[in-house]
Design brief:
The chain is built from one helix and five strands. With 93 residues, it is an alpha+beta fold. It is globular and about 35 Å long. Helices cover 19% and strands 33% of the residues.
């Protein structure tokens, strides 16, 4: 018999359908039907560092189209909100 501890219900995610892919050197996310890639660096968790650092200047659309400053900020804001909801520590450098 397995018993479950009661947990406080989590608030609903603002980005429940956000598809992400994480590797050691980038995060890919789907936003408005387009795929964006944010370059960065993964770290081992638990050593006082963030889980991932992303580079503000290294944001691109996967199809090679140029990224405007407004799009860059929207991509980064969406990524940060989703990471916070999932308990990931990401820093923008």
């Amino acid at each position: 018999m397995r018993l479950r501890r009661s947990r406080d219900p989590r608030p609903a995610r603002a980005h429940p359908d956000l598809k992400t892919d994480l590797s050691r050197s980038y995060v890919r996310l789907e936003l408005d039907g387009r795929s964006a890639i944010v370059r960065g660096e993964a770290f081992l968790p638990g050593h006082g560092s963030p889980d991932f650092e992303v580079f503000r200047k290294e944001v691109e659309w996967a199809d090679g189209a140029p990224v405007s400053e407004d799009e860059r900020e929207r991509i980064l804001q969406t990524l940060m909100a989703s990471a916070e909801e999932r308990g990931l520590r990401i820093e923008i450098v």
